[in-house]
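SAMPLE LOG
Freezer: B-3
Tube label: C17
Construct: single chain, 142 aa
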Amino acid sequence: MISFYVVFGLTIDIRNPVLLTASIILASLQLLFISTIYAMLVVRLRSNWVITDIMQFLMPALGGLIPSEASRYVMLVNEYSPIAYPFVIMREAALGYLELPIPITYQLFYSVTTVASLFIVTTMLIRIFDKRLREEGKLGLT
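STRUCTURE (predicted):
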């Protein structure tokens, strides 16, 4: 924040630092679990370009990286995509206004539920893929 003041002469006022911190943690965990699932699929399929192309399109579009103010269609996507909520909450905490017509408590609940679900899926996939790769003797990508 000091660099914004020095370079641009701006002072940044974060409206809800606790909520911002919680959303950053939720978003980081969510991205960690999604990337682990992606890695497991790449290792198993050995054809990562298809999955990479799909992920490069889906993550910005469904992941809440585009603000809801862009259009009403983006708002609908952000409202119904469970992986969008941590990023929407980040903007809401920093700017101090609701981007979606959903209370913050529900957005946090949806975010925590999504992160917990991704954790369970990631844990199951790691166990499955680790067991298969150990049985096949293919822990490397050779």
